[in-house]
Structures are given as structure tokens and as C-alpha cells.
Specification:
Number of domains: 2
Largest sheet: 10 strands, mixed
Number of helices: 5
CATH architecture of the largest domain: 2-Layer Sandwich
Low-confidence stretches: none
Length: about 260
């Protein structure tokens, strides 16, 4: 009797500071490369993970998702424990479980949530420097929140994605954007059904311009309507961005 193939899903948290993003590339270390190497060693078979979100160089994650196929007899839920003994300390598997073989994290309905952190204070805080963008000029948070409301819903986000995007369809749905300030930290939390290349960071950079009063809140809507990357704000630095998590409605019933 031959070995039975199964598909395992990983929920992965990582500090992206020293990595060149998620996706394997020839010029630097990536999260995907580390996972493939460790899984291949642990399971003693060639493994190639499929990631749900290809985060950029320097971007962090609390709940990115990947799947891989394996014939191992190691229970799926135990793989996280085995992997975490070997992975570097800046990558931790939060969960591992078996999913249907047809489940593909980039080809099914999902809700992705990103959070961007801005340290808006007079001076930098050393312990926050790797995980938030420091701005000493006070930002108008209420104006940023008003501007963010214009982006909620289904729109063509061509103005808010990199010109290097390979996507032919630039329509996406944003479910919710919250701009909140607690003490000296402003967080921008964005949930949507998918995001274009650099979309979150360009949205954040545009909202920062609103906070600096370079744009009025309703100008964000005008940028959306022009469908031109050149009219939007700058791309915010990667290190302030964290992928908080990805939800898959079709998997909610699984244990």
C-alpha cells in the first residue's frame, strides 16, 4: 500500500527585519526558503510551501499562512512543534493542521488583515524602531480616519498599487479601515479580500499625507477615481507593517 498524500496548513509568525520578504529569490534570505529547507530536513522528503501572502522585504507577520503536501506519518498538528525546535528565533509556527488537498491559500475566499504602526512622538523609542515608522511631526488622526472611510468598499485601486504589479485586475474590496491613536502610537488596521503589490503601504503613505494636512480627506477619493499611481502618496516604509492574520471562511468548520 502506497503512502497517502496529505496537505498541511501552517500559520506563521515572523520578524521580517533580516529577511528579503516571503518569496524565494537569488539575492537574499527569505521566509519561504527557510521553511522549505527546514521542512525538507525534518520530514526527509522534498517540500515546497505555497504562501497565502508574499510579504515584502522587512514586513512582519503574526499570522501568515502556507500549505504544503507531504506523505509523512507525523501528525499534522505535531509538525509545528518539531519545526519550532529547528527554526531561527525570528520565525515561529503558531499552528499546523491538515486541510483538504484541494485547499489553495491564494485561490479561495479569504479575509486578510494588515496593521501599520506609526510612532508619532517627539523622539524615537529604541524598542519600537524595528516595528513602527517614526514621525515627529504631529498627525491629524481624525482627518486620516475620515479619509480612510472613502476607501472602504469595492473599488479599482490602481492608484494605490505599485506600477510593478503583475495584476491585470486592480479591483479589490476593503471591508474595514480603522485609524486609532493610543498614547504616541497610531495604528492603521486594514481588512480586505486581497491586496495589490504595495497597496497597503501606499494607502498608509497617502493617509499620512492627509495627517500632515498636505491632502484634504476627500482628496483620497479623488486619487482613487484617477486610477494613476503618480497622484497617490508615497509608499510607507516596510518595517511598520505587520500581517496580522488571514481568515478562510471555508475552513472555519475544520478542527
Amino acid at each position: 500500500m502506497g503512502a497517502i498524500m496529505k496537505r498541511v496548513m501552517l500559520v506563521i509568525a515572523y520578524d521580517g527585519t533580516r529577511y528579503c520578504g516571503w518569496q524565494m529569490q537569488p539575492n537574499g534570505l527569505t521566509i519561504e526558503e527557510i521553511l522549505n529547507r527546514m521542512l525538507t530536513e525534518v520530514l526527509n522528503e522534498p517540500i515546497a510551501v505555497i504562501g497565502a501572502s508574499r510579504t515584502d522585504s522587512g514586513v512582519h507577520a503574526l499570522g501568515n499562512v502556507a500549505v504544503f503536501d507531504t506523505i509523512t506519518q507525523v501528525p499534522a498538528e505535531k509538525i509545528s512543534f518539531v519545526l519550532n525546535q529547528r527554526l531561527p528565533k525570528d520565525i515561529v509556527i503558531q499552528q499546523s493542521k491538515e486541510v483538504p488537498l484541494q485547499f489553495h491559500p491564494r485561490q479561495c475566499i479569504s479575509k486578510k488583515t494588515y496593521q501599520y504602526s506609526i510612532l508619532n512622538s517627539r523622539f524615537q523609542v529604541p524598542t519600537k524602531r524595528l516595528y513602527s515608522y517614526f514621525l515627529y511631526v504631529p498627525l491629524k488622526v481624525e482627518a486620516m480616519s475620515l479619509a480612510a472611510d472613502y476607501l472602504v468598499g469595492e473599488h479599482d485601486f490602481k492608484s494605490y498599487c505599485s506600477t510593478r504589479t503583475r495584476a491585470t485586475d486592480t479591483v479589490r474590496r476593503i471591508y474595514d479601515i480603522k485609524v486609532e491613536k493610543i498614547e504616541d502610537t497610531i495604528t492603521i488596521t486594514i481588512s480586505g479580500n486581497g491586496f495589490l503589490y504595495n497597496m497597503v503601504r501606499i494607502i498608509v503613505g497617502t493617509l499620512i499625507n492627509v495627517g500632515l494636512q498636505a491632502y484634504s480627506p476627500d482628496h483620497v477619493k479623488e486619487i482613487l477615481e484617477q486610477k494613476d499611481r503618480l497622484v497617490a502618496g508615497p509608499k510607507a516604509p516596510a518595517h511598520g507593517l505587520t500581517l496580522k492574520g488571514i481568515e478562510f471562511p471555508d475552513l472555519l468548520e475544520l478542527p
